[in-house]
Amino acid sequence: MNIASLLQGIASFAWMAVIGVFAAIFMRTSRNQPVKGLSTAVVVLLVAAVLLTSASASIVFIEPDELAVVVTVIGGKGIRSETLTAGLHWIVPFAERVERYSILNQTYTMSSVQDEGQLASEDSIQVRTKDGQQVYIDASVIYAVDPLKAIDLYRTWRFVYEDGLVRPQARGVIRDVASQYGVEEIVSSKRTEMQLAITEELTRILLANNLVLRDFVLRNIRFSDEYALAVEQKQIAEQQAQQAKFVVESKKQEAEQARQVAQGQADAAVIAATGAADARLIESQAEARANQLLSQSLTPTLLQYQYILKLAPGVQTIFIPSGNQFILPLPDTTAP
Questions:
Q1: Which of 129, 228, 242, 267 is the most buried (most CB within 10 A)?
Q2: H-helix or E-strand containing 16?
Q3: Is the pLDDT reported for residue 239 higher than 80?
Q4: pTM score, two decimals?
Q5: What is the mean pLDDT of the segment spanning 275-288?
């Protein structure tokens, strides 16, 4: 509770006391009882009530989120040249009064959703696009009173600037800007551009009327039922086309994969055949080399020795009569 409210409370209590004393005087008078002491009390209380009322009327406390315009009968201008900011201020009682403005951000919403906007009923903006389609736009305008121009705002709009300025101007600007775009542009490629154009135009209009635009929010864009159905059918067709394309690509990949597998098998067979042929060639070359080395190592003595060994594995000694021929002819070692 600030001091201004406290003084108003005390003044109200004083006036109630005055009324109570007057009632007591009336009752005592009706009973022919003396009222001398009560007369003095009523005078004191009356003076105190008047003084307290005057003091409470001359003290004004402005909240931190407010500013005030002082309307005055002094000086002939009707309004003080400066506003009152947060804090305690003095005004001339009964000759001046304050009109308070909130300096907080304020939001005005226009929506098709019930109870979402300032109006309880459907309040979206109907727009005819460049290509003749009907769309419904939900939007919010976030704005604030310009502290430096509050006096001019009071002179021109008083406190009806929301319904008299913000709402009609916002709806008009949204219609004008959106009508310059096609429906496909609004919902996709140029939505941001459209929102920026609306913001710039609203900023200019509100600034000219002593308000500051904080932000413009494009909440939702809704189509007519016919167009929404056409868009849905188009999306279904596009999805089906994408699915068919995906199937074709899958088949192509499967075919390519099968081709690569077959090619790999063929390459593997060629490599295996080449390896077998190379191995056989190496083996043949090794056998030929071994035979060559073997033929070079054979001598007549070695052949006779090997021949004797093959006669009987267990024979260690052979006796031959003197002057008789060997029982078996020795191998001919002179043959080429």
A1: 129
A2: helix 3-30
A3: no
A4: 0.62
A5: 80
Residue 141: C-alpha distances to residues 166, 179, 231 (Å): 8, 19, 29
Give a yes or no: residue 115 inside a domain: yes
Q: For residue 71, which of 94, 93, 99 has the smallest C-alpha distance?
A: 99
Q: Check residue 129 and report its DSSP letter.
A: -
Residue that finishes a domain, picked among 101, 116, 142: 101
More confident residue, 215 or 279: 215
The b/e string for 76-100 (b: 16+ C-beta within 10 A; e otherwise) is eeebbeebbeeeebebeeeebbbbe
Cβ pair 1, 56 in contact under 8 A: no
Query: CA-CA distances (angstroms) from residue 210 to 149, 158, 200?
Result: 5, 11, 16
DSSP 268: H
SS3 120: coil
Query: Does the residue 12 lie in any domain?
Result: yes
Residue with tokens 């909240």: 63
For the stretch 289-322, pLDDT in tens is 777 776 776 666 666 666 666 665 665 665 556 6
pLDDT at 228: 65
Residue 167 one-letter amino acid: R
Q: Which of 43-57, 74-88, 240-254, 267-281 has the highest mean pLDDT?
A: 74-88
154 or 244, greater pLDDT = 154
Residue 310, H or E segment: helix 300-311
SS3 content of the chain, % helix, strand, coil (to 5): 55, 15, 25
Look at residue 254 and tell me if it is in a domain.
no
Q: Is residue 244 part of a domain?
A: no
CB atoms within 10 A of CB 127: 21
- Same domain for 80 and 114? no
